[in-house]
Structures are given as structure tokens and as C-alpha cells.
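## retry 2 of 3
previous attempt timed out at serialization; input unchanged, resubmitting
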Amino acid sequence: MKTVTACTLDCPDSCSLVVETSPNGKTTLRGNPDHPVTAGFVCRKARNFVKRLRSPYRITSPLLRRGGEWLRLGWDEALDLCARKIGEYRREPQSILHVHGEGAKGVLKQASKLFFALLGSSRVKGSLCDSAGYVAYVADFGSRDNNSVTDLLNARAIVNWGRDLSRSSVHTAAVVERARRGGTRVLTVSPGGMSNASASDITVRIRPGTDRFLAAAVIRRLIERERIGEELLTHTKGWEDFRELVLARDPAGLAAACEVNDEDIERIYSFYADGGPVATIVGTGLQRYLHGGENVRFINALAVLSGNMGRSGGGSHYHLHSLHSVDFGWAKGPAESSRRTLVYPTIGRNILEASAPPVRMLWVNGSNFVNQAPDSLQTVRALEKIKFKVVVDAFMTDTARHADLVLPCALILEQEDIVASYLHDFVHHVKKVFDPPGEARTDYEILSELGRRLDPPILLPDPQTCFRAALDRPNIEGTLEELRAKCFIEAKRPAVAYPGMVFAHSDGKCRFPPELHPEPPPPEGYPLRLLTLIRGDSIHSQIPQEDQAARPTVWIAPENPFAESGERLENAWVVSPLGRLRVEVRLMAGLHPAVVLYRRGDWMSAGGGANRLIAAGLTDMGSGAPFYEQYVRLETE
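## retry succeeded, writing output
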């Protein structure tokens, strides 16, 4: 049997999938060849996820903690217990905290937000992903928008600031490779650890977290060589102050700050100054620093001042807002502004500090934040203070292990939904392929049934109503029935963002960053920067338990003094002020000498979990998590 559906993993590509099941039960998943972006192929992450559907470790019935054991419950008993606890705490609804994550995308996944908004619970804001960059784009351009991904084919040159294309977006990688075969030159700026070298004409190694200084150094050359036209500047606001800010910095000082030599700065300048069009790709990693938003803003300023915004083949490419093609307004409650808000990147600290009322009940869906948020051990201590904790998940994750009640949920391919993309403009119908195993239910079904048991009840709109509301946008031409029949439809959006350099601010002009902050030095005793970079085989912590390594591996540069121990060191420790983690050390050519590279997502319960070493904090904008601000050292036994 062959079914066309779509991927709902937290990935920009949002692939259209063809799932085939043979009579003997074997499942094959491949990309839809008829989809303009998916183009017949998918990444390892999607293919590997099929293993999780039938994993022997999957939770298939509600589990209640009783002492040190987990007891199976029926759904009636489990939901009655939840209803009693909500009834107990409902008089102070903000004592209930709802944590919604992006473990899976989709319209119906938003129902939990509506449920707890109607309840009046506390909620979380901020992001563990890309919010500093999002807010930077809004500050610069007035909105989050960029040229179509296929417009990269019109670029004369592409400058990739730190995006690991093959691990983060295989379809962006395919477009860049196709452009390169057609003559487009590609330059990559990176501290190393990416797989872009073979797809780049030039690779420039940079000191981690200092992209703003490199962009400023290139902008300074544009100013000094009078390559910025007067007409272009009429589309900007604050130019004189920004010009003064850049010229006040010594060129040698800018180069030293980012540890990029004059020759490489000149190469980047030549890319941007040759008349273009030059497309700029901005990775999410460079905004995971204390000054992450500022890094993005200086790169955007370079794209503007080189004359590459508002034109085909140019633009600054980040992540689109997925709401550009679906409407989630139906999932908002009537009094959102009055709800107490905790901050995702500092959630452990926030729970411990919460008072009047304290957090007494926790509901988690789509999130493994004990593993994924900084300072994991503080987060564990915070959860111990909460009287009743419910985690909706399919596996006994690092977060589920600290729950009082675990409710088994349906996964990708096991429920109908609608999903949009933050890479392209297609909206997909997610057709159900399999029934969930055992007693597992969808997130929507769980909350819909729970809501009916409350007094007074909380009644969610039925799924069809949610679907139709999500598609009720002026740039969507098609009904729910048409979407189901066609499997995907394209939302209308200009292929070029900000045409004519008319931006989304009320005056139509772009803005510049007001400051250029110095990079803080490493703390004494911790000279190396811990970069917990993206994996190629799994989304974040959604790693099959059978694939968890017995010991994490980290990589360092051959120039790192610790590399004198040899090509491979099986017993070492990564040490931060928060703790230590036993690792195996290997060498990787091309890494910056000050980097310790760790592929994030492995579980604490399996001996991993790098976030136990990373201090909680906030980026300069967007309430993001500055994961890469953490300094460490390596030790042997």
C-alpha cells in the first residue's frame, strides 16, 4: 500500500513523503518525487524515525509513578487523576505550568496551547532554537521574510554564514549544490565541524561567536572604498550613526576579534562587492551566543549595504515564520497577556523562583526540556519541587523519567494533521498511515477527553474546525477537501522579499544595529568553547534508545594542545563550572583550535547530556538560549 503524507518533525524542509507498506509489514519511506522542493529524497532523520514507531522501548499505556516503580493505568483512571489534580489547583491556575515544545509540528499540536490558555495556566516564552535570529530580522527589516529557497539558483555568489546544510536542511543543500554546478561561487564562514567544505569554493575559519566583527570588517571596506551608493542609503534609517560605529573600530582590531586574516576578509569583501547578486545564508548556530542577535544584525547590514536585499539572487536567508502559510489564531486564548510567563532557556531557575503561587502542577507535551534546556541538573532539582507532573511522550526520556504520570502519544505517520514549512511555501496534508500502538493516543485526543472531565469543562474545537481555521488565509487558495486530494498546496508569497528594498517597517526602511559589543574573554581555567552542534541522523534528542552511544564523543582540532594525547583518547572529561562529563576525544581537521565539538541530543540516562555542563542564560534579544557561550576544559583521568 502506498500513501502520500508529510513529515512533521521539527525541520525546515517539511518534506512530502511517500510511505509504502509491503504485505509482510516492511515500511519504506521516501521523498515525494512530485513535490517541487522535496524532489524525491529525504534525509536520514526522517528515514531513521520509522525505527522509533516500532521500538521495543516505546510506551504504549499510561504509567503512574508509585515509589520507585511505574504502574500501568487505564486511560479512564489516568485522565480522572489529571482532572482531579487540575480541579485541585484550578483556583490558582497560574500554579499550573504548561510546557509546549516542537517535538512535532502540525495544526492540531497547537490545541494544547488553546487548552491551557483557556485554563489560564502559566506558560513558557523564548526558544531553545532560533529566536535571537528571528527578533534580529524583525529589528532590521520589520518582519521575518526571505527570498524563495529556489531563488538561490539566481545568485552569482552565495555566502553561507555557518549553516551546516547537509545536517540542517538537505533540500537547501541540494539547491546550493545545483547553483554551484551552474557556476555560482560559494563561500562558507564557519568555526568548523560542518560538512560543507566539499560544496564550497572557499571556506573561512572564524573564532566562534564573532561573526559580527567579520561582517563589520567587510562593511568597513565597503565604506572606505566608496562602494555604498547614495540611492541605496535612502532605504535605510540610522546610517550615519552606524557608519560612525563601524569606522570607530580599528581594522586590525576587527580582524583580531574574529581571528580571520586580511586575505580572507578581502575574499569575503570581493564576494559582496562584485555587483552580485549575492545570497546570504545565515545559520542558526551563530545566534546561540550571548550576542547572537547582534551577530545576525551585522550580517544583515552587510547584505543591505552591498546592495543585495530586495533583488532576485540576493537576500538574507534564515527561517521563514511558518505562520506565513497557516493561521494559528484559533489557538490563542482570550487573556493571553495576563498569564504568567516563564522563560524556556532558564526554566529550571524560573520554576525554583516562582512564587505567589509556586508551580504545583506541570504538563509537558512535545518537549524533552530536561535534556534540551541549559543547566539540566538545576532543571531536575526544580521538577522535584513540583507536586504533580504529567509528561506526554512515547519514550522514557530524561524529562519523562521525572514525571509522576506519563501519557503515551501518537507519533509521526500515526495521526492526521496539516503542516507548514519554515523553508518553503507549501502546506501539506498529513495523512494517517498507521494506527498508534497499544493504547497510545494523539495529543489532541488526550486533551479533548481530559477537558470534558473538568468542571467547568474545557471544550476544544473539533479537528475539522481547526484545520479549516488554519487554512483561512488570503494567500491560501484551496479548501481542506482540495488539500486532502492534492496532498499539498502552495501558499502565495513573492519569490523576492522586500522588492525594491521596501521593508516591513512602517517607514519602509531597514535599521542597523546600534552597538558592537566586545567578545568576553574565556574565564580562567576554561579555555575551550563547547559547541553542541546539530546531528545528522536524528532531530535533537529524538534518538532511538538502541542507538544511544555508551559514551559521548567530542572532537577537537589537531592544533589543540590536548591532541598531543593521540588520534583517539577513550577516557577523558569535559569539565565546566557546573560539572563534568566522561567522553571519548577524537581529532577533526578544520576545527578552530579553541572548539570542543559535541553532537547534541544524547540522553543523560545513557551517559550523555551536554546541557548539564551549560549555564542557563539569555541571548541579547529574543529570549534565546546562548548554548555556545559555555567555556570548558578537557581533562584526563
